[in-house]
Design brief:
By secondary structure, the protein is of the alpha/beta class. 34% of the residues lie in helices and 24% in strands. The protein has five domains: 92 residues, GIY-YIG endonuclease, CATH 3.40.1440; 71 residues; 198 residues, Rossmann fold (3-Layer(aba) Sandwich); 181 residues, Rossmann fold, CATH 3.40.50.300; 88 residues, Ribosomal protein S10 (Alpha-Beta Plaits). The chain is globular. The structure holds adenosine-5'-diphosphate and zinc ion (2 copies). Adenosine-5'-diphosphate (ADP) binds next to helix 10.
């Protein structure tokens, strides 16, 4: 008996709780239209789920078989290009997570649902008509006449809904005119272009009047040359604040567009980059480009439109935070990562990818140019420059030789002698803020990211008790009175005298800063308005924007905020910037603490004094002579990098090795602790290749949302090799169902 040819086979990656691509049968009709990247529905167990076509097995004829058939085609047009599919596969391997979570991060929910673009009924006057005759004819239907005249005068289509509400007319009126064939009703795709009106369209200087500085010109030529070569490259644009990096990005973007390519522009946090977004919109809008702003607050409809505009090439520029790196764009030529050193490029949830690193990989897959910009590049990026993997361009001068603000370092040890409690604000700073208020000028006070635990600080010499092996601050545990290292688990009893100067002024200092707004308010004249911007506020879209807007328009006198508001915000009336706890990051349980402190200080010192008035910066510190403060004060990036690199090299921390954090968490503290320790024993059974292991230790934030957390740290020169070894051991290590373990590759947060 001759077997019937019923179709072909295809590989489909389910996007629903299944981690492997599966083989399905597909009919002869469908195989003609389906493509790699198409969305389909497939039977999976008893469910019917969404899947992404991951490969088409070529031409193979399928005869009647047991294979299940795909149920339907959701969207033919690929939702992921071949490069993005490759990127997804790489992310799965590198960040050790499932394909499913990667696809969910890459493809917005609204696109996965296969929804179509929004259309709306439109009205317009039919062409070639004798309008005078019609108007006469309509004399007996006054409402129809009004509508007709309105549409005629408008001379272009308008949404039916809108015209009905403007003229206060009902559906009947429209119907009447349509039936008489005087006007037409039709359907059109409408764009919900978010944010459109929010950005000042004339913020940007006209390109033609700008004469590039010599340094800018050099950087632009460099980028242009690379873009012309159409080869993959990564380039660090290292330029001091105010050196005109944005103009360099813009010229490179223009070149990419001229080549018919598209551009991806990443910023650390979209709501904190309003100026950058406005400038991009303004500059490229004038050149006829549609700019898509991609951010987490887009409505489903807006997101769908944005996605379509990019996928079809209607919009060739996307600007957004890290998830914009997955934007589906044909012919991607350039990826700009602004403020590449920002930790917020790392996603702190599965998939735990680093937006900058994914950008580099994507650029490689697309043979595109990747441009990383910063005034204080990360050590990782500097290391790659050192290794000649990345090129570097430098802008050493500020535009117009603008003056840097005056920087005062306030010695908090002296303040502590004067007061009985450990002071939050020094007398010097309080007086300066009051003076600004009296002069009707504004101030910004920076707090560092909140410290989680209590550390031991000597207010006499500024010394902090540290772990000998890990060089991070030890934290005090109330429960047993020990000081503990949160990386390796080392512990010792809390000393009664300072281990550096033998003073008895060693204090357990917690860094709770929630009350800071109140403290500042209390110290200011009664009518002064003090507001705080923090992570909680960030969650509320409008509140954050309103607060920043109020500050810009002068309705707030003192803005208190964390590091996240340090970058890119230009407020001409701000003449004072205070850093309340400059060395708090130095005390934190994170080996990147001094790098972060340095970056904040440089950013802060670079931002005041951008208006006509000169600015002043106050840095409060218990270690005023420490190198990060001194290097920052002189904006000596290379001095700092050199010293910090040396320390990292000695301790084998990133960028010399990759750091993988392995978290064990459970609602049951003992179990989390026990399994973390058991795991360490398994690892120690036989030597592992190229992996340094620290821990387990309780995580600095030992309990989050009811989960107790313990972690181990692996330092390795090859993530791939390390993960392979871990996975092998993990197979024979059954975990209690109440305990979960999570791998965070290239972890940025140690909390
Ligand atoms: P950065 O991003 O390096 O901190 P910006 O790109 O914000 O610096 O530039 C600082 C300011 O200098 C901006 O107002 C910009 O318009 C202006 N600017 C940039 N390049 C030039 C130039 N070649 N001539 C005059 N002004 C410039
Ligand atoms: Zn001391
Ligand atoms: Zn340690």
């Amino acid at each position: 008996m001759k077997k019937e040819v019923i179709g072909s086979r295809i590989e489909v990656q389910p996007i629903a709780g299944f981690d492997q691509a599966l083989t399905y049968a597909i009919s002869r009709e469908l195989i003609k239209v389906v493509q790699v990247g198409s969305l389909v529905r497939i039977p999976l167990g008893k469910r019917n789920v969404l899947g992404l076509v991951s490969s088409l097995s070529s031409q193979e004829k399928l005869e009647s078989s047991k294979l299940r058939h795909i149920s339907s085609l959701v969207q033919q047009e690929p939702v992921l290009s071949k490069e993005l599919l490759k990127l997804a596969k790489w992310m799965c391997r590198y960040y050790s997570c499932s394909m499913e979570v990667v696809l969910e991060a890459m493809i917005p929910a609204v696109v996965r649902e296969g929804k179509s673009a929004k259309t709306e009924r439109q009205l317009k006057v039919v062409s070639r008509i004798d309008s005078e005759r019609i108007v006469k004819e309509l004399n007996r239907s006054p409402k129809q006449k009004v509508l007709f005249l309105y549409l005629q005068k408008l001379g272009k289509p308008i949404a039916k809904r809108e015209v009905m509400s403007r003229l206060v007319i009902g559906d009947q009126v429209v119907k009447g005119l349509v039936q008489k064939k005087f006007i037409e009703e039709f359907e059109e795709v409408v764009d919900r272009n978010a944010y459109e009106d929010e950005y000042d369209s004339d913020l940007d200087t006209v390109e033609s009047v700008l004469k590039l500085t010599e340094e800018q010109d050099h950087a632009v030529r460099f980028c242009t040359k690379l873009l012309k070569e159409k080869k993959f490259s990564v380039n660090l644009l290292h330029g001091v604040t105010g050196s005109g990096k944005t103009e360099v990005y813009f010229r490179a973007m223009k070149e990419a567009l001229n080549q018919g390519g598209s551009v991806l522009f990443l910023v650390p946090e979209i709501s904190l980059a309003p100026q950058t977004v406005s400038r991009i919109r303004s500059r490229f809008g004038k050149q006829g480009e549609t700019v898509v702003v991609w951010h987490s607050h887009l409505s489903a409809g807006e997101r769908l439109d944005a996605w379509r505009n990019l996928a079809t090439g209607k919009a060739r520029i996307v600007v957004g935070a890290r998830s914009a790196i997955f934007a589906s764009m044909p012919n991607l030529r350039l990826i700009v990562v602004d403020e590449e050193h920002e930790p917020s490029y790392k996603q702190e949830d599965t998939p735990r990818y680093h937006g900058r690193d994914v950008a580099v990989y994507r650029a490689m897959l697309n043979q595109a140019v990747c441009l990383l910009g910063s005034a204080t590049p990360s050590l990782e990026t500097f290391r790659n420059v050192e290794l000649k993997k990345y090129n570097q361009c430098v802008l050493t001068k500020r535009i117009d030789g603008r003056k840097l603000p005056l920087v005062h370092v306030v010695d908090m040890r002296r303040e502590a002698q004067r007061e009985r409690n450990i002071p939050i604000l020094s007398q010097t700073l309080v007086e300066a803020i009051r003076q600004r208020y009296a002069d009707r000028e504004q101030s910004i006070l920076f707090l560092n990211r909140r410290g989680f635990n209590t550390t031991m600080l000597c207010t006499e010499c500024g010394n902090v008790e540290r772990c000998k092996d890990c060089s991070i601050a030890l934290t005090f545990h109330r429960t047993d009175g020990y000081l503990r290292c949160h990386l390796c688990g080392y512990r010792k009893t809390a000393p009664r005298v300072c281990s550096s100067c033998q003073s008895i002024e060693v204090h357990k200092k917690g860094h709770g800063t929630q009350r800071i707004e109140d403290v500042v308010s209390a110290l200011m004249p009664r009518r002064a308005i003090v507001r705080r911007v923090d992570a909680d506020l960030m969650m509320k879209k409008n509140l954050l924007r309103e607060t920043l807007q109020d500050f810009r328009t002068g309705r707030i006198d003192v803005l208190v905020g964390t590091q996240m508001i340090a970058k890119g915000l230009d407020f001409p009336n701000v003449t004072l910037v205070g850093v309340i706890d400059a060395d708090l990051p130095l005390r934190m349980e994170d080996f990147r603490a001094s790098e972060r402190a340095f970056q904040l200080l440089v950013q802060v010192a670079g931002r005041a004094g951008r208006g006509d008035r000169s600015g002043e910066v106050f840095i409060q510190s218990y270690a005023p002579h420490s190198s990060s403060i001194q290097f920052a004060r002189n904006t000596d990036v290379y001095g700092f990098i050199e010293e910090e690199m040396e320390m990292r090299r000695e301790l084998e921390y990133p960028p010399f090795r990759h750091l993988i954090r392995h978290i064990f968490r459970s609602r049951n503290e003992e179990k989390a602790d026990f399994y973390a320790n058991q795991w360490r024993k398994i690892l120690d059974q036989e030597p592992m290749e190229d992996i340094l292991i620290k821990g387990p230790a309780p995580a600095p934030l030992e309990k989050i949302k009811g989960y107790y957390r313990f972690h181990l740290i692996y330092l390795t020169s090859s993530v791939k090799n390390c993960l392979a070894q871990l996975e092998k051991k993990r197979e024979s290590f059954p975990l209690d169902p109440q305990v979960q373990d999570i791998l965070d590759v290239d972890a940025m947060q140690m909390n």
